[in-house]
Amino acid sequence: MSATPSSPGTTHSGRPSLAAWRLAVFVVFAINGLAMASWFARTPAIRDALQVRTDEFGVLIAGMAVGSITGLLGSSHVIARIGTRATLLVGLVVSMGSIALLGIGSATFGSYPLVLVALVVFGATTGIIDVAMNVEGAGVEQAQGRSIMPWFHASWSLGTIVGAAAAAGLAAIGVGLDAHLLGMTALGLIASILAVRHLPRHRALPGLDDDGPGPERSTFAERMAIWREPRTLIIGAIVLGMAFAEGSANDWLALAMVDGRGADEATGALAFGVFATAMTTGRIAGVWVLDRFGRVPVLRASALLAMVGLALLILVDHPVAAGIGIFAWGLGASLGFPVGMSAAADEPSKAAARVAAVATVGYFAFLVGPPLLGFLGEQFGLLNAFWVVLVLIAVAFIATPAARERGASRHATPVRDAPH
Fold it and tell me: How many CB atoms within 10 Å of residue 112?
């Protein structure tokens, strides 16, 4: 019998090639970004539909953050049980469903409890998806032998740009939240199913899942022991500060422009779009910059740029200054999270557990940040509350030496688009 030729995206072993694996990870990151922006950019409309105060809205965002932390804490154990591929499929489907519930709960029913439940579920699934897609990204990065993690996060940012642009356009023409978010749900579900089926059934990083050949799966105790390592916690501090810089814009920038600068809802969504564009620009250019200068100098320069941009936005009440400040803030915040994930994955034997732990520490920003900024914003205004963000970026600046290249990042050997 003659052999059956493999499809263009697969090898003769039936597994996707490195190129197909890489493309599938790009798409998963983009879908996650699209879903997040669909929520972020419509926060003013959701607040108005529910008729709540800024601090009450902060509690809603905190509910999402609690869900995120819960998902992150359980992520490595879920992935170890069912593998990254299955985790991403289930997580993306449930996440899209919660986006639909968010739209119906706010615009159709005006139900604060229903929106809170939707955000808790959305946060939990997003936390699990975040770790799983970063593990897949780290696996591709190490297989390719180049620091391309910022490109995956650029794909996430590109998804947020598309989501923010859609939200701004739909808000400008008066499309309701329920119609908007139901449409995003349908789009996300189709894209998720098509993308995940092209992820390989194998272990992205050693010691994590057992859906293919490789070293024995790590134990629960081994995965938890990573929390006692100083390097894990210091890398987590970098990600904490830079995730706070990114997350505070995601959650509060549109509202800050509406409440603090008197902008309309469409302009608030546009401001978030400027931030998302800067994030994407930084992540696309970041791979070349990291190749040339290394992690530590790039992270230091990024933190400084974010602090300058944020200070400009807070202190200068002028549209041009706001635009420049928002872009500088986004550009400076763009590399902290992806570089932190790459640093966490440097040692292959600990990569999966450390990626999960560092992501959890970083997402702590989403737990303490929303209510803190919400309560401070109620008392002093959201723009003044952003001074807290600037302080945490300074902490990340101090911690940057922990991200210095070591382990797998120094010795990775590029492979061709062939079986793994």
Answer: 17
Amino acid at 211: D
Q: How far apart are CA 204 and CA 207, in angstroms?
A: 9
Distance CA 249, CA 61 (A): 13
Q: Name the region of 230 (left: φ>0; alpha: ψ -120 to 50; beta: rest).
A: alpha
Indicate the residue type of 344.
A
Give the chain as a 3 state SS string.
Answer: CCCCCCCCCECCCCCECHHHHHHHHHHHHHHHHHHHHHHHCCHHHHHHHHCCCHHHHHHHHHHHHHHHHHHHHHHHHHHHHHHHHHHHHHHHHHHHHHHHHHHHHHHHCCCHHHHHHHHHHHHHHHHHHHHHHHHHHHHHHHHHCCCCHHHHHHHHHHHHHHHHHHHHHHHHCCCCHHHHHHHHHHHHHHHHHHHHCCCCCCCCCCCCCCCCCCCCCCCHHHHHHHHHCHHHHHHHHHHHHHHHHHHHHHHHHHHHHHHHHCCCHHHHHHHHHHHHHHHHHHHHHHHHHHHHHCHHHHHHHHHHHHHHHHHHHHHCCCHHHHHHHHHHHHHHHCCHHHHHHHHHCCCHHHHHHHHHHHHHHHHHHHHHHHHHHHHHHHHHCHHHHCHHHHHHHHHHHHHHHHHCCCCHHHHCCCCCCCCC
Determine the average pLDDT of the residues in 288-293: 88
Whole-angstrom Cα distance, residue 22 to residue 133? Answer: 11
Token pair of 319 as six digits: 């549209």
Quickly count: other Cβ atoms within 10 Å of residue 193's Cβ. 12
- Return the residue matching tokens 């990569």: 351
Q: pLDDT tens, 350-381?
A: 776 787 788 777 776 766 776 778 788 777 77
Closest C-alpha to 322, from 309, 331, 335: 309
Residue-wise pLDDT for 202-248, tens only, equals 666 655 544 444 445 566 666 677 777 888 888 988 988 888 888 88
pLDDT in tens, 54-110: 788 888 988 887 898 888 888 878 887 888 899 999 999 999 999 999 999 999 999
C-beta neighbour count of 394 within 10 angstroms: 15
Q: How far apart are CA 108 and CA 357, in angstroms?
A: 38
CA angle 259, 263, 265 (to 5 degrees): 90
Global pTM reads 0.74
